[in-house]
Amino acid sequence: MDKEGLAHRVNPDPAMLGELMDRYGQDVWNYAYFLVKHRAMADDIAQDTFIQAYRHFSGFRQEASVKTWLLRIARNVSFNYRNAAFFRKALLMDIVSPKRPGRSAEQDYLEREAASEIWRCVLDLPVKLRETLVLHAKYELSVAEIADLQRIPEGTVKSRLFAARRRMAFLLKEDGEDDRS
User: Taking 80 as the threshold, does the pLDDT of residue 93 lie above it?
Assistant: First the structure.
């Protein structure tokens, strides 16, 4: 469902909510998880995001894509959760990649370990850098879309991307040196 698909709807309905959840549910959950690093909290944030979208359907101005609108809601909900007294840091997510035919168990293991290490480094970034990097790299949002979603200047997005990449390079290099010690 794109913004044109929402344009003809005067009022939200359960079918529309189902369509939004089917199409964007995993993206919203992943984004929430990247922000809070806690699976159960990401579940709650994703659920609250779609409830807020349903309740505030009239607030969708079609200036951005539906995905950007939902991610902005998820961002706001996650900030509310993070600011709440019960917010806690959590363990890193397990990354399990499906076994592909023709690949050895060793190749699969090495690939999972490399991906896991990259995500550990991403999750170690400060939230502002992590959020910007994830929006750009995982969700493929443009600098302008990220600026709109975060309500910051495009130059700030660019500097955060630069800082995130520099920090990632440092963290990955540092971790590689630790492995050789």
Answer: no
